[in-house]
Amino acid sequence: MESTPSSEERLSALERRVAELEAGASPVTGARASGAPAETGSAESSPAAGGTGSAPPGEAAAGLPGDTDTFWALHGLVDRLGEDGGVTYTGYTTPPGADGPVAWQMGLTTAGLGDIDFAEAAGSLAALGHPVRLQLLQAIYEGTSTVAELGRDERFGTSGQIYHHVHALAGAGWLENARRGHWRVPASRVIPLLTLVLIGTH
């Protein structure tokens, strides 16, 4: 029969637990204990989290950042999905020359992410894998809509080369023919495109 801990032993265990919480320790690897000091962008990765060195600016080394002003979207995601988590991207912006704003949100839970075949993204991403195509997309996003207009910019090459790039982008869903001879980025692809550009430039 196991002996019951004495009052002194229980008090000692409680004091150790309080000390751990005050120091920001957590029994869950990579998580910040409730009430612990918020981690900052300059914090070093903890051995428990498997990292070394300093975290990138604006990011916590491990666990959930405590700055709700900076990480309001992240905190909202965790509040909604809980510890199981997930990934989402969203945006609300008015493209140059557009009649109104574009709003978009896409996301999957962690369980849903496990069902994705990464290779399925190859075609869509490969269409963007050329600097000229990205420059064309930017020009069209900013309001240039015809091949004739694009042809005035020597960066894009000949009309034949421009048509080749435009048709490749359209085939992957990054462009659509708004009306005869006029191209645009589909509304459903504006935020995904800008998200990829942000990933590649920041």
Fold and architecture overview:
39% of the residues lie in helices and 11% in strands. The protein is an alpha+beta fold and 202 residues long. It has a domain at 118-201: Arc Repressor Mutant, subunit A (Orthogonal Bundle), CATH 1.10.10.10. A two-stranded antiparallel ribbon has the order 1-2. Strands 3-4 form a two-stranded antiparallel sheet.
How would you briefly describe this protein structure?
The chain is an alpha+beta fold and 202 residues long. 39% of the residues lie in helices and 11% in strands. It has a domain at 118-201: Arc Repressor Mutant, subunit A (Orthogonal Bundle).
Note the topology.
Blueprint lengths: L6 H16 L49 H10 L4 E8 L8 E8 H4 L8 H5 L4 H11 L5 H4 L8 H13 L4 E4 L2 E3 L2 H15 L1
Antiparallel strand pairs: 1-2, 3-4
Helix pairs in contact: 5-7
CATH topology of the domain at 118-201: Arc Repressor Mutant, subunit A
What is the succession of H and E elements?
Answer: HHEEHHHHHEEH
Give the helix proportion (percent range).
25-40%
How large is the radius of gyration? 25 Å
Output the strand order for the largest sheet.
Answer: 1-2
Distance between termini?
Answer: 61 Å
CATH architecture classification of the domain at 118-201 = Orthogonal Bundle
Low-confidence runs: 18-62
Overall shape: it is: elongated
Proportion of beta-strand residues: 5-15%
What top-tier CATH class of the domain at 118-201 fits best?
A: Mainly Alpha
The class by helix and strand makeup works out as alpha+beta
Number of helices: 8
